[in-house]
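Prompt: For my understanding, could you write out one protein's sequence and backbone structure tokens?
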Amino acid sequence: ARDQGWAESISEREVGLASLSAPVFNDEGLFVAALSISGPAERLKPHPGALWADHLVAAATQLSAAL
């Protein structure tokens, strides 16, 4: 997750649930939050990262810049 800038989970915590998260940093570069999407694994397959990582990382980057 650190290398690619996002992490995904597919049925790891709850069967049938998938999620994708990207870090949000403050102006000092410290991690302060995570921006995440989640939904039924069936709708986000085969991998949430393949579908949404670029969009989520861009949004997390914009949010970090706003802080």
